Amino acid sequence: MKRHFRPAMTWLHDWSGIITGWLLFAIVLSGTLSVFRPEITLWMQPELTRQTVDSDQATEAAIAWLSAHASDSPSWYLDTATPRAPFTLAFWSDKNGYTQRPLDPVTGSPDGLRDTRGGEFFYRFHFELQLPYPWGRLLAGIAAMALLLTLITGIIAHRRFFADFFTFRPGKGQRSWLDAHNLLGVIALPFHLMIAFTGAVTLASLFFPWSATALYKGDTAGMQHDLNPAAIERPRSGTAAPLAPFDAILHTAQQHFGKTGIAQIAVVNPGDRAAVITMTAGNEDSIGITSHTISFDGPTGAILAEHIERRPAIMTYNVLYGLHVARFAPGVTRWLYFVSGLILTALIGTGLRLWTVSRARKVSHFSTILVARLNVGFIAGTPAAFASYFLVSRILPAGLADRAGLEIRCVFLIWGALLVFAALRPVRKAWPEILTLAAAACAAVALFSAPWHRAVDAAGAIIAILLAASFTFAARRSSLKNRII
Amino acid sequence: MIFLIGLLAVLLLALTTHRDAATLTLRPLSSQHRLILRGIAFLLLALQLTLQIRNSDSTAFALIEWTGLFSVEALFAAVICTVLRRWREPLSYKQRKFGSLS
Amino acid sequence: MATTRYRSDIAIRTLTGIAGGYLLAALLSVAIARWLPLPRIEASAAGMLAGLLAWPPLMMTAFAIHSLPRLCAGFALAGALLAVLSFWPV
């Protein structure tokens, strides 16, 4: 039994890793970039140069603009302006369906701002994979569970956990790849386990709705109400009524929330007698999300319900969710999430690489060649494609029709082209070529950050230069003569 | 400063593993020395956490930051060990000529 | 012949781990939700998280237990027990 256990777990680690590895690589890389979601949006909006904004004034301007231009939308959803994201991010429905745009903090209008998804692209791709509901989320959830499984079996498979804690022996082929894989896994193991499990938690209701189904027996509204007693839902009445003055409502909410402020605002049935405004507090002072909610009657501005989360199981869920999305994170922690995310990306990359390196000495089997080519396409191609998103966003003219959609189509076009290129080209040549392309794309992102006045441009340029240097190094190493494919 | 305390602790921990002791010092350490070094390292890590908790509004936030910092410190320590080892035992002629087997 | 046997062994374990493991985890989430003396929404959330936590270890169990008949019997027994707990009329 004991002699059988470790080999079995190693086998499971290898196979669950290779089957989900490429998908996980893209998910983890986009998730890592999502750490700086508002910053990326800001980077892609060079017109937004204002350093400080008054969040409440920006919200009032946004509500005024939406009342004038989006009164037909069944609901509006706003992420309020913050020092990190000095714009209101609004989500509403127009004649083309739902759109999400940043609104100018002074005029409240999206005019003059570029039509781009910004950092929202990476965030959405991270768990929806640009696939229709629910397929993307299902795949992402399975990937999260597989990552958790692969991590746990990996710990069991690793024989010298503490003895090899800091060991990396370069220039020794398979030995070096295994060293790097172990090192990257071990040093950030708490983060890896946390992010895999909490990632699965964010999609848990999709996989395990059965407990709620069993207890509520189809009473979805009752469950929603229990989940957040302050989330009031009522049907449209058909009688028009303007919203109460918004400054007073904002003032009341700010008083109730204290220093955490307002993070999100939902206006359901705007312009109707049955309008409801729901405000969610920010969570800069606690890990858990949605800890405090208030809803107001739209036409009168009276408080309909208020809820402060204190129930243990729901709070556990909210804290696990909050750990994953890291909205609480102060500056240093956010950077640590980013670095840890890169470490996890590299862990998956080295794991995929090990698969081919450890099999290279055997006869070149079709499956080994397939894995090798997919490795080039995903490990080198994904960063190149993601970097190209930044470039496309700067190159496309600001006033183009359906600009946001075009940007994303370009990314997938480039990604697909790189995958095809990697599938056709000899692996030995494709590695340095695509890695060089990724380095060039990152260097170009640094240049396009000019004139580096805003903090996001300067920081973006520095990260891009560091990444360009890493890819250049990797490209040089991969072009060495006697390396294994 | 907090980062340096942690880095020192992690380097001491590296000293207590067999392989890296040989890299960082000339002579292998006795098991008693190793135990003492490990003790100091854990004390330093505890000191780092205490300082972080004092600087932060919330213990939970400090704990998350400490865990994250540890990863970065361990990465630095591994890089330092690798560079030192490379410096101690230069590449063989074959490796220089043909590049390493990677 | 060794490879066919090996392959069918792997196939059965994979199926037991993924589908069987999911079924057990789902039943566990329902059983926990029904028997925890908590308000409905709290019990639902606790059950959901428990199901999530149970799935990966169940998957590992499917590959860790050496004897295939014993593995299948164990999963079936656990499934039956949890099904009784989940659907027992209260």
TrEMBL record, chain B:
Name of the molecule in the record: DUF3325 family protein
Residue intervals passing through the bilayer: 35-51, 63-87
Pfam families: DUF3325
InterPro entries on file: DUF3325
Keywords: Membrane, Transmembrane, Transmembrane helix
Species per Swiss-Prot/TrEMBL record: Acetobacter musti
Source organism superkingdom: Bacteria
UniProt lineage: Bacteria, Pseudomonadati, Pseudomonadota, Alphaproteobacteria, Acetobacterales
TrEMBL record, chain C:
Keywords associated with the record: Membrane, Transmembrane, Transmembrane helix
Domain of life: Bacteria
Organism: Acetobacter musti
Protein name as it appears in the record: DUF3649 domain-containing protein
Transmembrane segments: 12-33, 45-64, 71-88
